[in-house]
Model the fold of this input.
Amino acid sequence: MTSPDLARAAGERTPQDPAAALIADPYTGYARLRAAGPVHRITGPDGLPVWLVTRYADVRQVLADPRFALDKRHATPGNYRGFALPPALDANLLNMDPPDHTRIRRLVSQAFTPRRIAALRAPVEQVADKLLDAMAPHGRADLITEYAAPLPITVICDLLGIPAEDRRDFRAWTDSLVAPDPARPQDARAAVGAMLAFFTALIRRKRAEPGDDLLSDLIAVRDEHDRQDRLGEDELTSLAFLILFAGYENTVHLIGNAVLALLRHPGQLAALRADESLIPGAVEEFARFDGPAPLAIRRFTREAVAVGGVTVPAGETVLCALASANRDGEQFPDPDRLDVRRRDNGHLALGHGIHYCLGAPLARLETAVALTALLRRFPRLELDVPEEQLRHRPSLRARGLLELPVRF
Ligand code: HEM
Done:
């Protein structure tokens, strides 16, 4: 399928810009694509061809299949442009395959076990309460800037051990990478330079003054004499970079999308208010219904592979549409209905297979705590602008609101 075909399938009014349709109304666009076929050859955002996988069963298969590699060396030269990160940020888990991926993931996975993360519940509740205290007197707030963003940023900075004076609203950096302004390519380059400088300085400082935190632990692993083969210096900076950004970016938008979904579905909101024990299941449903990562990281075929009956040649770029898989009626009964009581919710919003989200227990905890605290504090929460005025970030890869003005 070419770009104009994708545009038509996605219901776009301006066929020159296929991505715009999926950004504006991803679920209608993806429903049309799913109905039209399991795999579509489209022009990706960088102007080069990619294969888009739309159905649940196929997406799940691709995510678990080692014939799909994340390491860019498997792309046919000239077939993939991608965004060029310096080696000190690029050597991260989402560009790696086994055995490097296995080695590094093992080093960090102990920090993210459900037990370790459960111990963070009280500190996360304190962060949420403090943010709500600050909002409460005003009667209105932008829920993204004042709540959904600072909560995960604070939690991940605490976990990594980023000192208070080094913290900032990292969203400006992330946005210029995941939702770049096409008119200002220099912003992305500047953001990369700033991030590299930030992580290099942070690690230098932590090396000199270690603390009781994840980053100090990782530096210790790196620096132990007999263990230097376990984590290279570029891998260390890249891992810190990935954990920081993966650790807050998606969580901000899962919280924001969840609150919006509740404001649009008052019956579901009332159900959660009446019975807080529904919240963990509801978090899974928000991730399925309107998750923050509509696409998995691109993969490259190591050899020709059949997906949904379509043969994808070797060296091609494959995108798995998680947002589409999560609305596939073959997998989910009544897929476009938000149902906080949904059972057997095998959504793919956090991925699947060896790259399954490392931070999933933390993402679940933060979202559940954020929603519980918000609903308890404000018995009357409503949108403070007409719904049509809400705007999403202009990105195919990131689904989230720019602002969510509410009153309470
Ligand atoms: C709602 C919040 C989150 C969502 C929707 C989300 C989503 C995802 C997805 C879809 C993947 C797999 C990508 C792929 O296979 O293509 C992933 C991987 C990852 N996530 Fe998350 N994530 C969230 C929160 C977090 C948090 C809080 C952390 C860390 C504290 C985190 C750290 C990671 C890391 C390190 C990976 C790479 C794992 C690997 O390659 O082995 N994520 N995430």
About this structure: Confidence is low (pLDDT under 50) at residues 1-16. Residues 107 and 218 are 8 Å apart (CA to CA).
